[in-house]
Structure formats: structure tokens, C-alpha cells
Amino acid sequence: MLAMEERNRGTIGKFSLLALTFTAVFNVRNIVNNNIELGLSSAPIFLFATLFYFIPFVFIIAEFVSVNKSSESGMYGWLKTSLGDRAAYLGSFTYFFVNLFFFVSLLPNVIAYSSYALLGYEQTFTPMTTAVLSTLLFAIATFISIRGASWLGKVTSVITVTVLALTLGYILLAGGALAGGLEPADSFSAAALSPTINWATLGVMCWIFQAAGGADSVAVYLNDVQGGAKSFVRVIVAAGLFIGLMYAAGSLLINVFVPRAELSYTGGMVQVFTSLAEHYGFSAVVTGRIVGVVLLVAMFGSLLMWSATPVKVHFAETPKGIYGAKTTALNRHGVPERAAWIQFIIVIPLIFIPAMGSETAQELMNTTINMTAATAMLPPIFIMVAYLKLRLKHDHIARDFRMGSAKVGVAITIMLLTIFTIGFFAATFPAGSNISQVLLYNVSGVVIFLGAANAWYSRYQGRQECHSHTSIMAATPS
Asked: How many structural domains compose the chain?
């Protein structure tokens, strides 16, 4: 049966899996965004995040993959292994819900980089035009993503090569400029490289941890990988090390040509590369367009990955009866196709509400997005808690890979949970925030949507118990 599924769905090789992982995790914009927030200290923080979060978290994922070798959903199956169905449902729901609002911020960025690619500068569209273009773009991404891993593997392989060439090219050329005697725009002083540990920094650091995350999303394609779980584990561990080094090196060299104070969120990467081009005597216009094309491709690849992954995580192995059978049915590529289009329909009003031009609508959308910001930390926390219980209560389960002994696994997980718990509260209660607004929006938002999901699951469980009781009564002789 499994062999038949693999023939029907197609398989992807190690490089395609590496490309999927790279596209899901590495976002070159994170280098600029975190440099704007933290300066050169983002480089050691990225290195810290790689060593003390990303690598051990990848090991946790690898171990869960070894335990759940046939899982279609990844995260849902992992949580169910040690925490049960309710926690699996709630955890996968957070993964799905948070990403609905991620699309709202991602789609306009894809459009912005398309204008850099086509025009050489950022074209400002009207809000309604941006909303229409975003909807069309999301429809295309959904259509491609439901074609499964074989399609995504091909697309992301191209994306990985182009983004790697861009990033490594910058690292080598910026390093060469320094070796040639160039004085960096921002000096590499001990003070600049040393993070200031305060509440505000902790709030930003949690987004660096998120920037180093995403390998869990690739696990939904485990059944499409040639070589199975063993190949999957080797590839994502190697990818984790490489991505961490890329983030750290890029963050260290990002201010060689442009000082931190002059960087912008939307055009920061273009600023950096055009300044590099001017230093080496290349055409700044041509370089800007090339960078725009590469960033457009990278952003679109990220959109493809995140269009498919949350849907598979939440719907692929959800128990029958919570949603309709057609909603959770997998197509021949192993993707819940109808659920993907339902996701598309849900996101459309989230795109158009801010485009209506009303200040009230704008404020509503900003509040809603801010309300869900802290929830981005919840899915990995669910995974870590599930892993902690796996090592404490279910360590007897056979698997090909373990993150050391049970004591080692428990100690590392407690460290990760401590870091993430601090990051979660720092993101929920940002420095200088109005406490009443935080409690009203950030905290109540988490409570409301998790409470609603829990009530929905309780409703399903009640129906199941009622059905079971009815079946027992019918089978009992009168």
C-alpha cells in the first residue's frame, strides 16, 4: 500500500528536501529586519539561536519523525504520540490559525519585490489594487501547493540555488571588500557585537528564534522523501547547521556598505546590494533588478511552502467527525485540497478589510494581527512539551534516532522551554506597551481562539461518546 502511494505521489531526492527546508526556514529579509532592530549584535544572537535552539529543535523533529514514520501531518502525529488527540488538535490549530495572518503580511511583500524586479524601484499601489493582486497571487500559490512535494521540490530547488548564489555572493564580496581595506559603515566593535539583554531585546530575540525555525513544516513531506526517515533526518540536520551559519555570517557583514540607521524594512536588501555594486563598479540599476528578481522568487517560494504546510499539519490526520470528510480528504498528492481552498477563502477577507480605506477597518486589522503575534511561539512550545513527555513517559518506543539519553533529551528540552517561555511573555508584553491593551488584545486573543478550538473539540468528543453509548445500548439484549 505504501509503495503504491509513493508511486502515485512521486518522490523527492535529498537535494529537493534540502531545498524545501531551505525555502521554509531561510529568509534573507530576516537578516535586514533583525539588524534594524538589534544592529550587529543580531549576528551572535543568530549563532546562539542556531546552537541552542535550531539544532536541538531539529533533533527533536528528527526523533519525532523516527517515531512517526508514516505520518502525513507531522506535528499532529507528534503531539498525539505523547499528549493525545485533544492536544494534537489544539497544537495543530495554533499552527494553522497563526499562518492565516502571516499571509496578510507576506503577500504585499511579494508584490513589492515584483515591482523591484520589473521596475527597479518599489511601486506604490492603491490598497485595493494590492488586495486584488494579493488575492490572485494567493490563488496561484494555492493551485501549485496542492500539487504536492514533487512540484514544490522542483520549484524550491530553483529558488534555493538563486538565493544561495545571492547570499553567498554577498558574503564573499563583502568579506573581500573588508580584506581589501574597506572601512565598514558600522564598525565591528565589541560594544556593537554585544547584545544588550533587556526586556525589549528578549521580545525581538523570540523573532530570531522564529526566523531559525520552520524545519517542522517540512516533515509533512516525510512520505515523499526517497530513503524515508533516515534520509530526512540527515538532510534537515545538515540544513539546520548550514542555515544557521548563513544567518550568522550574513548578519555580521550586513553593515559593511550601508549603516544600520539607513536600512529600511521593505528595500533594505536592495539598498545593501546596490551599495555593494557601486563599490565594485557594477551597475546599481541592473544589480537592484537582479536582487528584486531573486527576492521575488524567494518570497514566492516561501508563500508556496506556507500555503500547503499549515493545511497538511491541521487537516491531514484530524480525527473523522471534527470536520467534514471532504474537507480532510487527501488528494493523490497527499494534500487536503479542499481544506487548502477553504484556507484561501478565509484569507480573502483578511486581505480586503485593510483595503477598504476606513481608519476603523485599518485599526481593526492591526489589532487582530497584533493579537495573534505572540501565538507564533505556541506551536514550537506544544512540540517541546510533547517531546518532554515522550522522553519521560514513552522513551521505550522504538525509533532509529534519539537525541542522546533520556536525561540529555529532558535537560535540553527544559532549556528550550525556558527560552521560549521567556520569549513568549516578552512578545506578549512588549516593552513600553499599554498593559490594559495587551491584556485586552494579546492575552484575550490567545485565550479566545484556543478556548474556541477547545470547545469545538469538546463538541466532537461529546458526539463521539453519545454515539458510542447509543451503539452499546443497541447491542445490549433487552
From this structure: 1
